[in-house]
Specification:
alpha+beta; Cytidine Deaminase, domain 2; globular; binds tetrahydrodeoxyuridine
Length: 133
């Protein structure tokens, strides 16, 4: 099943994490509408606030590679932690309502959706000027 490959990619991406400050390694993987899987990992900065989460690295990397439509997202952490608020906003903006798989280091997977993670979301539909693309 495709989603198993997606979850495995997120688990594998944890190894690429650069997390010398928190020690909390996160991997993520986005499934695109053509079946391509794009991975990301958290990258921390000595100026802590500049850190970028794994989910956003995966999605921004996918966008930079020309993908604009996503069908699922997987996140892997040590303890099954769920996406932060900033990532939830970005996931909603770029993916709308998709399944989100959250795995822990033992491979236990919880399935949720981006709508469940971000109820009553703010998004482009509330802006008076609509986005160009
Ligand atoms: N982190 C993520 O990569 N994704 C999240 O959704 C939660 C937090 C990272 C950021 C930081 O490098 C570390 O986990 C601890 O907050």
């Amino acid at each position: 099943m495709k989603d198993n490959a997606l979850i495995q990619k997120a688990i594998d991406m944890r190894k690429k994490s650069v997390a010398p400050y928190s020690g909390y390694r996160v991997g993520a993987a986005a499934m695109t509408d053509d079946g391509t899987i794009i991975g990301g990992c958290n990258v921390e900065s000595s100026s802590y606030g500049l850190t970028c989460c794994a989910e956003r690295v995966a999605l921004y990397r996918a966008v930079a590679e020309g993908h604009r439509s996503f069908t699922a997202l997987a996140v892997a952490t040590k303890n099954g932690g769920s996406p932060c608020g900033a990532c939830r906003q970005v996931i909603w903006d770029l993916c709308k309502d998709i399944p989100v798989y959250i795995a822990d280091e033992k491979g236990k997977v919880r399935e949720t959706t981006s709508r469940q993670l971000m109820p009553d979301a703010f998004d482009a539909s509330q802006l008076t000027k609509q986005p160009n693309s």
